[in-house]
Structures are given as C-alpha cells and as structure tokens.
Design goal:
Shape: globular
Order of helices and strands: HHEHHEEHH
Number of helices: 6
Strand content: 5-15%
Mean pLDDT: 88
Oligomer: single chain
Low-confidence stretches: none
Strand order of the largest sheet: 1-3-2
Structural class: mainly alpha
Number of strands: 3
C-alpha cells in the first residue's frame, strides 16, 4: 500500500530539520535560524517583514529569532532611514563566516538525499517539488485550506 504524500513530506521535513539543527548547534543556533541568517547574508538590509514574507513564516516567530540572532552577534539591526519605525537587518562578520560553513552542510545534505538519482531525475524532482510547493502556497493564500 502506498503512503500518502504527507508521510513523505513529514519524514523529509523532520529528518532534515534534525540534521540541520545538529549541524548548526556548534554555532548556537537552529537550522531554521541559519535560514534567516543565510537570507540576510544574501540580502543585506532586508526588513524583518520582508524576511517573514519571503520565508513564509509568521512575523512574531521571525522577530523572536532575530532577537536571539542579534544577541548572539549574527545579525545587526539598523533603523530604516526611509521608515523610522522599521529596521533593516545586516549580517555581521561572524554571520558571513558561519554562512560559508552552513552552506557546505546544506550542500552535503542535498548530495546525500539525492544519492542514486541521475542529474535528469534530480532536476525533475526539484521541478516537481517546486510545483507542489506553489500549489500549496496558492491553496493557503486562496483560503482553500
């Protein structure tokens, strides 16, 4: 009997999160927080609101993580000159160094989970996951769930 798709998504999510958390614990952060730092590193000056929007995560959860990352010296908050109520987020030197190591961990994780797939299968798998994700986002945004 085949498993429902949710079972596969759940296994991939849970195991992936455990592995990312384990890889990032030496930096005093979770894999999810590494995702925040990685995006801030790629988009210096991004706002917390935009960060939440891009990652499709609740603004409150992002604010809590950013507070921790600021206290730990990974992120610097600067007042937005165009909107004095908002802040822009910038990576610190500590974050830039850590991102390089984190990226290596992510690439290794992806290599391991794609083991045994041909390059064409990897590409097809990524395209299919992208479409399924877009469908889920559309359902959520359209109020279909």
């Amino acid at each position: 009997m085949e498993r429902p798709l949710q079972v596969y998504f759940s296994i991939i999510y849970r195991y992936g999160r455990v592995m990312h958390d384990k890889a990032m614990e030496r930096f005093g952060m979770t894999g999810q927080q590494m995702g925040y730092v990685g995006l801030i590193n790629k988009s210096p000056g991004i706002s917390q609101e935009e960060l939440a929007k891009r990652l499709r995560i609740d603004k409150g959860a992002v604010a809590k993580s950013i507070k921790h990352l600021t206290e730990e010296g990974f992120v610097e908050k600067r007042q937005n000159p165009e909107d004095r109520r908002a802040y822009c987020l910038f990576p610190t030197e500590k974050a830039v160094d850590m991102c390089a190591q984190g990226e290596r961990c992510y690439r290794e994780f992806e290599r391991e989970i794609m083991k045994g797939l041909t390059p064409d299968e990897e590409k097809a798998f990524e395209e299919l996951l992208s479409r399924v994700t877009d469908n889920l986002v559309g359902m959520m945004e359209g109020g279909n769930i």
